[in-house]
Amino acid sequence: LKPPADTRISIFNDSFGALAVTLSLFQPQAVSDSYLSQQATRLNLAGNGLPEHNVKLVPKSCKLTDRNIK
After folding, report:
1. What is the DSSP letter of 15?
2. What is the rounded distance in angstroms from the CA atom of residue 64 to the CA atom of residue 1?
3. pTM over 0.90
4. Over the stretch 41-53, which tens digit does the pLDDT of each residue have?
5. Which of 10, 23, 36, 46 has the most beta carbons within 10 angstroms of its beta carbon?
6. What element of type H or E holds 37?
7. How far is the C-alpha of 6 from the C-alpha of 3, rounded, in Å?
8. Spatial distance between the Cα atoms of 42 and 39, rounded to a whole number of angstroms
9. Sign, CA torsion 32/36/37/42
């Protein structure tokens, strides 16, 4: 799987970060309203030896615009 370079991937409500970890090479943004979900994603990334900066964690309260998706 090799999406175009300008492709943006957004993941919504990924409870434990399984999708975020799987797609981390594409530097997705993970949108969630749960602090625990974001912590689980961080732990899942660390447990798989992946840097946290590969996934942008975005609170659901944040308005999604081109500026905060980049």
Report:
1. T
2. 26
3. no
4. 999 999 999 999 9
5. 23
6. helix 35-47
7. 8
8. 5
9. positive
